[in-house]
Design a protein that fits this description.
Blueprint lengths: L14 E2 L2 E2 L5 H11 E4 L11 H11 L5 H11 L15 H13 L5 E5 L7 H18 L2 E5 L3 H4 L6 E4 L2 E5 L3 H5 L1
Parallel strand pairs: 3-4, 4-5
Antiparallel strand pairs: 1-2, 6-7
Amino acid sequence: MLMGGLERATDGSVMALGHDLTAMNEDALARFRRDHMGVVFQSFHLIPTMTALENVATPLELAGVKDAFDRAEEELGQVGLGPRIGHYPAQMSGGEQQRVALARAAVTRPDILLADEPTGNLDGATGEAIIDLLFGLRDRHGSTLVLVTHALELAQRCDRTVRLRDGLVDEADASVASAAE
C-alpha cells in the first residue's frame, strides 16, 4: 500500500522511479499511479455495475486513451476472457474476477506492477494459473513486478526476495529457501 501511494508513510520516504511518493499530494499520487503503476489486489476491487470490458477500459478512459475499449478487449483476450467481456463480476468465478483485475492492472502498460497476495482468495490450481498470467504480463509489458505473498512456491519464482517480519526487513537478497527456514 505504501509502494503504491495508497497509504502514507508515517516516517521516512518511499521512492519509485526516482520520485518521492511521500512528497506528493493526493492529485500527484493519483497521476503517478495512473501513468506508471498497475495494482492487483487480493480482493479484486472490481466495479460491480460494470462489465469486465468496462472495468478494464476504465483506467485507459481516465487517462484519455482514445482506443480504450479496443485495448481492454485485447488485454482480456490475453488473460483468456475474450468470451466473457460482457459479463459482470457477480457472473464470474473468483479466478475470472482476478483475471479481469490482472487485465485492468496491465492494460496501461505500467512501469511497475504491484500484486498484493494475488492468489490469496483462490484455490491452488486457479492460483497457479493466475501467477503464470501475472509473470506473463510482466514479461510482455516489461514491467517491474513487486509481489507480496506468504506462499513460498510463489516467492521462489521471483528474482529477488525481501522478507519482512513485524513490518521490518528481516532478510533481503537472501535465497527464498534460506528465508523460509
